[in-house]
Specification:
Transcrip_reg_TACO1-like_dom3; 3 domains; DNA-binding; Alpha-Beta Plaits; 10 strands; 242 residues; 7 helices; four-stranded antiparallel beta sheet; cytoplasm; Arc Repressor Mutant, subunit A; transcription; globular
Length: 242
């Protein structure tokens, strides 16, 4: 197992969207609510929750808001009747690009209407459940700042990573199965790697290369619009630009 020059099967595993926006406080708070609801409401015993809280703190969400979100997830907050659902939406953008959307919503009709409008206005269409998800695989991804590749190879082997990828800006991403993410995280921390972000991400099995500038513009505008919606947590697409 090895890095760029040594991995026989290493490929670019996702399309990086230059215009990707930071998550809003609403999106970050909802991620905490769902993580607390799906497991114990204690970050020490809930890796998903701990990751959601870390992201919220890094974005400047107040401790009071974090505690309120924890209480909502645990069912101990009395002033809110909204019930959030995790829903995955799927569709196609310009050029037949597959787009996978993860949402947290208290009104699925509202969310579907917003998404349908975003697709329609940007040369795409919202599809049925299952129409594109077969093109993706969910992975745990850990993003690192500047790293030494030889040390990363050693730690990746120890942490049972599936692969890693070095980038020109000298950072790296390490990929693993969802169930192994906590083990890999602990291993990288043990080796003092500068961890920037930990997340679950849908990775496309194959990417479509977009060469038409108008299609590229439509795709970036669509993804930008989708990511700006409070109900939307993550957007993944299977395209690369030249």
């Amino acid at each position: 197992m090895a890095g760029h020059s040594k991995w026989a099967n290493i490929k670019r595993q996702k399309a990086r969207v230059d215009a990707k926006k930071g998550k809003t406080f609403t999106q970050l708070s909802r991620a905490i609510i769902v993580a607390a609801r799906n497991g114990v409401a204690d970050p020490d015993g809930n890796f998903q929750l701990r990751t959601a809280i870390d992201k919220a703190k890094a974005a400047g969400v107040s401790n009071e808001s974090i505690e309120r979100s924890l209480a909502k997830g645990a069912g101990t907050y009395q002033d809110d009747d909204a019930i959030l659902e995790e829903i995955r939406y799927e569709g196609y953008g310009a050029g037949g690009v597959a787009i996978l959307i993860e949402a947290l919503t208290d009104n699925r009709n509202r969310t579907a209407a917003y998404l349908r409008s975003a697709f329609t206005k940007n040369d795409g269409n919202l599809g049925e459940i299952g129409c594109v998800s077969w093109m993706f695989e969910q992975k745990g991804v850990i993003t690192l700042d500047v790293v030494d590749e030889e040390k990363l190879l050693e730690a990746s082997l120890e942490g049972e990573a599936d692969s890693y990828e070095m980038y020109e800006e000298e950072g790296a991403e390490v990929f693993t199965s969802v169930t192994n993410l906590e083990h890999l995280n602990q291993t990288l921390q043990k080796h003092d790697f500068p961890i920037q972000e930990i997340e679950l991400r849908w990775i496309p099995n194959n990417n479509i290369e977009i060469t038409d500038s108008e299609q590229e513009r439509s795709l970036f505008k669509l993804i930008d619009t989708l990511e700006s919606l409070d109900d939307v947590q993550n957007v993944t697409a299977n395209f690369l630009t030249v």
